[in-house]
Amino acid sequence: MTAVTAPELTRGLLDGPGPSFAQHCAAHGPLPVVDLHTLVEEAGLAGRGGAGFPTAAKLRSVAAAAAATRKAPVVVANGSEGEPAAAKDATLLALVPHLVLDGLALVAAALGASAAYLAADEALLPGLATHLADRRDPVGVRLHPVAQVFLSGEESALCAALDGRPPLPRTKFPPVRERGVAGRPTLVLNVETLARLALVARGNDLAAAALLVTRRMEIAGTPWVDVVDVPLGSRIGDVLRLDDAQAVLIGGYAGTWVEASRAAGLRLDRSSLAPAGASLGAGVLAALPADRCGLRETAGVVGYLAAQSAGQCGPCLNGLPRIAAALDVLARPAPAPSGLLRDVERWSGLLPGRGACSHPDATVRLVASALRVFSEELARHGADRCSAHTGRPFLPVPGSG
Amino acid sequence: MTGVVLWYLNRATGITSLVLMTLTVVLGSVVRRHGRIPGLPRFAVQGLHRNVGLLSALLLITHVGTAVIDSYVDIGVSSTFVPFTSGYRPFAIGLGTLAVDLFLLVVVTSLLRTHLPHRLWKAVHLTSYLLWPLAFVHGITAGTDLGGGWLLWLVLGCGAAATWFSVAALGARRETPPPAERAEAALTATSTAMSTGTPVGVFRNG
Question: What is the pLDDT of residues A210-244, one digit of tens each?
Fold first, then answer.
């Protein structure tokens, strides 16, 4: 690979002429009236918020819950991008806000929703308010600012925030699809999922078979971050430039480290990533340059994730800080206290499945992948050496200068 | 003869019930503050709180039952549930009746806890802080054995323990930082502890 370009982009989400309603209408035409349930089912669209849940199943279950409780449902466009390494949702809302709003209007109509929300970073709201004013949606969209914390995008935390309560995740039962905003059945979809819905409804079948990727790499020592629209099934080696990379973080801070040589051959779809223990997550791909220390980077991220715990569940509140502090010691080029690595493994085993949300599970998975992929680095640290040649961190961690 | 047995049984169950209720309040305060009793895991403290509470309920039933059956003074069946209707010392007995009513509510809602909204259960459970003083004052005003000696000291000890632990439990909320600040504080404390090699404490999540 010679130049850093994404593979040929699908007629996609980011190549619109401009963000205004007039430009949007000129490029995409009016929003057709469609049978959304069938359409989404046929397109096989999966959610782009991180979990990759089939959108058709989500639509069906909210419709069923609404019928069972005789309460009009609420639809929520989730643009709260708590993941510091991701930028796709903000990019999407800045470049093609009307595709997102089209998607929201489609699901609101399909479900007979009584209220629609768009939750996004506060900085984006004034722009979005102007775009909203140009539209005549039957269900008015309410804009809601989201806190810049890691868990604010978790759907139960988001519903709590929309209800005016602190943005904290709650247990999975009753699920948000049955009891969400104001106790109503609630459909929460990522903004990218909604934008893809708007394209699928217009007959663009390829829209469901692509995903937005936030790429993060370094080219000749210069940081490079961008958002590209790539077809599902693309080889990671074609999306990222991996010449000087030692490992790839797939999925973001709730994701997995994979050796660069192995990652290059992986394809961006669930079945190809699963054997490597990875998933698409929030669509983040970060190629760690060879002159950084993978353990140092991971320790920084895990410290951030531990501090971002909602502090509600004992295992998370007590487990993540211990793991983070231990990882911080292991990330130093000095022999670590004997038994510390074993402690980390033991604590890691105690966390999964014991929190209200999957924050501890995901963090533990990231730590396990780092200890596996950077095992040579770990040995190097034991001999007082480290492969980092620069103190500049590669992965962004808010609040750490 | 039966009258004497009932009379002794009534006084004995009354005083034992008060001691156990005090113990329940103390244990509840420990549960509330996520505290520990040496040698017991946390869930066992919770179990102890529950079982001591149920035991005092059993004793209370005997206490009330013997008071009604004993015909020496006029305490009717209705005044078991309706306060201040007793012929014998209506005020003192009425306080006890109020306490019994509240106790019933607390026990029933706790047994049905998993089937009730958490807030409802909690609101009812908090009335225990009203229940205990009612029972205590009932014991002092209706009691006939408090002229002096070890029994008086026992009752005063109960009063001191319940007051001390109630204040500790009700004040505990202010000690726990709000969820948003907990994680960061835990991380800082853990990092410091680990770098100095001191053992890491347990952080409270509620």
Answer: 999 999 999 888 899 999 999 999 999 999 999 88
Architecture of domain A294-382: Up-down Bundle (1.20)
pLDDT tens digits for range B46-62: 899 999 999 999 999 99
Compute the distance between CA of residue B14 and CA of residue B66 in angstroms, rounded to an integer: 10
The hierarchical CATH code for the domain A18-203 is: 3.40.50.11540
How far is the alpha carbon of A335 from chain B, nearest alpha carbon, in Å? 14
The residue among A149, A165, A309, A320 with the most chain B CBs within 10 A of its CB, best to mutate, is A309
The token pair at A236 is 């990671």
- CATH number (3.10.20.600, 3.40.50.720, 3.30.360.10, 3.30.70.100) of A209-289 reads 3.10.20.600
Whether the CB of B200 is below 8 Å from some CB of chain A: the reply is: yes
- What is the predicted pLDDT for the residue at A7? 40
| DSSP per residue, A279-317 | --TTTEEEEEETTS-HHHHHHHHHHHHHHTS-S-SHHHH
- Cβ burial A384-394 (10 Å sphere, 16+ → b, else e): eebbbeeeebb
Instruction: Answer yes or no: pTM beyond 0.80.
Output: no
The CATH class, in words, for B3-175 is: mainly alpha
Nearest CA-CA partner of A187 in A289, A291, A53: A53
Confidence at residue A8, expressed as pLDDT on a 0 to 100 scale? 39
In this structure, what DSSP letter does residue A140 have?
P
Tokens of B42: 């946390």
Find chain A residues with C-beta within 8 A of B179's C-beta: 166, 168, 310-312
Work out whether the CA dihedral A255, A258, A264, A270 comes out positive or negative: negative
Burial environment of residue B74 by CB neighbours within 10 A (0 to 12, 13 to 18, 19 or more): exposed
Q: Across A29-33, A45-49, A170-174, A376-380, which has the greatest mean pLDDT? A: A376-380
ipTM value: 0.84
Question: Is A309 within 8 Å of chain B by CB?
Answer: yes
Q: Of A84, A88, A120, whose CA–CA distance to A104 is shortest? A: A120
Question: Which chain B residues are Cβ-neighbours of A328 within 8 angstroms?
Answer: 191
Where b means 16+ CB within 10 Å and e means fewer, B13-36 reads bbbbbbbbbbbbbbbbbbbbbbbe
DSSP label at residue A247: E
Main-chain dihedrals φ then ψ at residue A7, nearest 5 degrees: -60, 165
Rounded CA-CA distance A362/A364 in Å is 5
Q: Who's near A190: CB < 8 A, 6+ residues apart?
A: A47, A48, A49, A50, A77, A78, A79, A89
From CA A170, how far away is CA A336, in angstroms rounded?
Answer: 37
Q: Compare all CA atoms of chain A with the CA of B202 and give the residue at the minimum distance.
A: A318
Domains of chain A, residue spans: 18-203, 209-289, 294-382
Mean pLDDT estimate for chain A:
90
Element (H, E) at A226: strand A222-231
Whose tokens are 């078991």? That residue is B80
Q: Dihedrals φ, ψ of A288, to 5°?
A: -75, 120
According to CATH, where is 1.20.120 located in chain B?
3-175
Measure the CA–CA gap between B148 and B159, rounded to whole angstroms: 16
Q: Nearest by CB to A317, from B178, B182, B193: name it.
A: B182
Which residues of chain A lie closer than 8 angstroms to B180, CB-CB? 166, 310-311
